[in-house]
Amino acid sequence: MMQLSRRGLLVGAAALAGCRGPSQPKSPPPKTIAAAVAGAWRPAADRERDRWRHPAESLAFWGLKPGQTVVEFWPGAGWYTEILAPFLAATGGRLYAAHLQLGEAPDPAARDVVEAYRARFARGARLYGDVEVTAFGATSGPVAPAGSADLALFLRNLHNWMAAGIAEKAFRDAFLALKPGGALGVEEHRAAPGGVPDLLASDGYVDQAYVIRLAEEAGFRLAAASEINANPRDTRDHPFGVWTLPPVRRTSPRGEAFDPSFDRARFDAIGESDRMTLRFIKPA
Asked: Methyltransferase among the record's keywords (predicted)?
């Protein structure tokens, strides 16, 4: 399997296992982004992270509108899906979730994440609408019908795709799915400017200029950059890369057991990572 950490997959599976599909939404169908972010159906742990991820501001920046068709690449446990799906269902839109490509012999952890995601959002179909689960990976086909999407989203996944050698394909697949004039929104852990880009993103941080170059090579035009998700406290010099910080909070190298003696205080005080927030346009 591609170099998405097994611990990351297991964290995703655990997050999904702890989320039950809602029987009834406790608030009206969300007709605005703000209403979707404030939705009572969202797990408390997800809402707690809003102060770091700024979903309302980010989605507005990327240009999310009522009734759009959206492609969310690698939605993981569904943190953003919990916001996107109800909003799109309530406004006549559509959501494609381009999840992990499982292949003929899938990694069990990856399979569990995808199956739990499917079950989670199927259980809440009245709220979430019909979330169309497709796949993205090294040999995957179209993530959505060509030219059908208004917005595609890469949400803290580029570092995984760089490690797996499929970042260029992600941009190509998004470009194919988008309508002319459609937008690509990117949120990604941001490396310090001016250094030599690590093309494998081994610490999880990605050079912003490199992201822009990949997008432009796929045919996109940079429309805007925002500091919505900036965190000046993030020094980026963490012993286990970006995964030292919340929400992963790693205490030992990849694949090793949790280390209860590791002093987490200064890393927890930083909060979640410093991140670039970019919007690209597919030229009309």
From this structure: yes
Catalogue the E-assigned strands of the chain: 69-73, 94-100, 132-136, 149-155, 178-189, 221-226, 275-281
- Provide the token pair at 93: 């839109």
Its pTM stands at: 0.92
Q: At what angle do helices 108-123 and 81-90 cross, to 10 degrees?
A: 30
Sheet holding 132-136, edge to edge: 132-136, 94-100, 69-73, 149-155, 178-189, 275-281, 221-226
Could you read off the pLDDT of 167-222 as tens digits, one per residue?
A: 999 999 999 999 999 999 999 999 999 989 999 999 999 999 999 999 999 999 99
CB 160, CB 202: distance < 8 Å: no
178-189 and 221-226 as β-strands: parallel, antiparallel, unpaired? unpaired
- pLDDT score recorded for residue 33: 98
Contact between 191 and 197 under an 8 Å Cβ cutoff? The reply is: yes
Mean pLDDT along residues 91-106:
93
The architecture (CATH level 2) of 6-19+30-281 comes to 3-Layer(aba) Sandwich (3.40)
Q: What residues form DSSP beta bridges with 153?
A: 72, 185
Angle between the N-to-C axes of helices 6-17 and 108-123, in degrees from 0 to 180, rounded to the nearest 10: 30
Q: Give the mean pLDDT of 58-79.
A: 99
| Number of residues assigned to the chain | 284
SS3 73: strand
